[in-house]
Amino acid sequence: MISITKPSLDDLPILTEIARKSFWESHGHSASAEDIKGYMDSKLTEEAFRTELLDERNIFHLIFHNGRPAGYSKIVLDSPLENIAAQNVTRLDRLYFLQEFHGLGLAQQLFEHNLHIAQQAKQAGIWLCTWTENHRAIAFYEKMGFQIIGESNFKISERHSNPNHLMGLVF
Known about the structure:
This protein is of the alpha+beta class and 171 residues long. Helix 4 links the parallel strand 4 (89-97) and strand 5. The chain has five helices and seven strands. 22% of the residues are buried.
């Protein structure tokens, strides 16, 4: 059974655990262990998530598979990007899953849930950044209809950035 819920402040430990573990699983080999740990210790903490959850612009969701937390998402409505002409576009800021839940179709379900929210809010499209070496994610987003529309850098530390694709989907 699959359920998708909006997290509350009571869910901070779950959200933080999924974020840290899934980030390590997908990006842990992209930089030094010190740089990855520094990023996680500054950006993927309960306090960081508390701040993000309290910001009404951020829309988070947790997805559960058979009662177990499997992943989470974060979107931000009305997040213009210079590579997309429309101003009313949504940023898919995060769509992270624990590796043990890959291949179950959960990412598509959570993505479609967020897509529905964006469409209900009269958004013209959705965009995201993904690491150029995350071939699984790139293939997933292309399957969902996204196209590469630019490049950016994801700063992990003062010493290290990962090249990212900007990907967009116009409705």
